Amino acid sequence: MAELIAPIAGNVWKILVAEGDKVELDDELIILEALKMETPIYCDEGGTVTAIKVKEGDAVNEGDVLVVID
Length: 70
Known about the structure:
Blueprint: E1 2-5, E2 10-15, E3 22-23, E4 28-34, E5 37-42, E6 47-52, E7 59-60, E8 65-69
Antiparallel strand pairs: 1-8, 2-4, 2-7, 3-6, 4-5, 6-8
Keywords: Biotin
InterPro entries: Biotin_Carboxyl_Carrier/Decarb, Biotin_lipoyl, Single_hybrid_motif
Protein name: Acetyl-CoA carboxylase biotin carboxyl carrier protein subunit
């Protein structure tokens, strides 16, 4: 199991995956918006998305869990 962690504080602008989706290393999963800049968040491990811990529009802090991959 792997947890995708927010590297910066910001708002969840777009979620590009759904629970049950198969993902590969370096797939773009979420886009965060901070200071009017979009920051894509990439998968660091392949597997299946088992949980999405945020929704579009949520504010997140650095270190928050965004997605769980098994």
